[in-house]
Specification:
The structure holds two protein chains of two kinds. By secondary structure, chain A is an all-beta fold. In chain A, the strands form three sheets. In chain A, strands 2, 5, 6, 10, 11 and 12 form a six-stranded mixed β-sheet that branches. Chain A has a four-stranded antiparallel β-sheet with strand order 3-9-8-7, with no helix packed on it. Chain A is globular, with a radius of gyration of 14 Å. In chain B, strands 2, 4, 5, 6, 9, 10 and 11 form a seven-stranded mixed β-sheet that branches. In chain B, strands 1-3-8-7 form a four-stranded antiparallel β-sheet, with no helix packed on it. Classes of the chains: A mainly beta, B mainly beta. At the A-B interface, strand 5, strand 6 and strand 10 of A face strand 4, strand 5, strand 9 and strand 10 of B.
């Protein structure tokens, strides 16, 4: 079974600075998808960014980018120019590309990001 | 466009009372549907998932059950709530039809407090 590990339970960053959240995963599959979700205090889960394993290019969404290292099974999230609104719990998730019950996402335990003014 | 509705947003129920949480999806057909619970603002625990009408898979044995009476409707139920059922419940959907929906889209959640 796939596992997702977020080794940093909490992180903090100064406003306007850059922070990187770590995520590693364990899988024997070659084709899969990786995601970062943000959960602000409202507790609404919001998709931040998606990476397809077959794509070598790292995904970017405005101030959010990933460093996808397939061989190392690493998928870190970089937040540039951090804003107060970035403060949230961040979850890394994995999904197999195969069908059937593998539609499910496997989540890490989350990293709580604090942004200091 | 696709939307997901989850209600109620907040619920306070006495121990031993029944529970019914509802989730509906609009703008897509044959979605995969999921119920998660999140305790103490931490990790997500998958409770049930469904890949079609009447098809329910349970991830953990517990006091809860799920049903999918219609293609885009997913219901989480309990006959008698326990204190340990308190938590934040999230409904989600995804699909294999379009890559942008391979990940989950979540509902806004239900905060359940059992007293």
């Amino acid at each position: 079974a796939q596992t997702v590990t977020q080794s940093q339970p909490e992180m903090s960053v100064q406003e306007a600075e850059t922070v990187t959240l770590s995520c590693t995963y364990d899988t024997s599959e070659s084709d899969y998808y990786l995601f970062w979700y943000k959960q602000p205090p409202s507790r609404q889960m919001i998709l931040v960014i998606r990476q397809e394993a077959y794509k070598q290019q790292n995904a970017t969404e405005n101030r959010f980018s990933v460093n996808f290292q397939k061989a190392a099974k690493s998928f870190s999230l970089k937040i540039s120019d951090s804003q107060l609104g970035d403060a949230a719990m961040y979850f890394c998730a994995y999904r197999s590309a195969s069908g059937g019950s593998n539609y499910k996402l496997t989540f890490g335990k989350g990293t709580l990001l604090t942004v200091n003014p | 466009s696709q939307t997901i509705h989850q209600w109620p947003a907040t619920l306070v129920q006495p121990v031993g009372s029944p529970l019914s949480l509802e989730c509906t999806v609009e703008g897509t057909s044959n979605p995969n549907l999921y119920w998660y619970r999140q305790a103490a603002g931490r990790g997500l625990q998958l409770l049930f998932y469904s890949v079609g009408i009447g098809q329910i898979s349970s991830e953990v044995p517990q006091n809860l059950s799920a049903s999918r009476p219609q293609d885009r409707q997913f219901i989480l139920s309990s006959k008698k709530l326990l204190l340990s059922d308190s938590g934040f419940y999230l409904c989600a959907w995804n699909t294999m039809n379009r890559e942008e929906h391979y990940g989950y889209t979540f509902g806004s959640g239900t905060r359940l407090t059992v007293v």
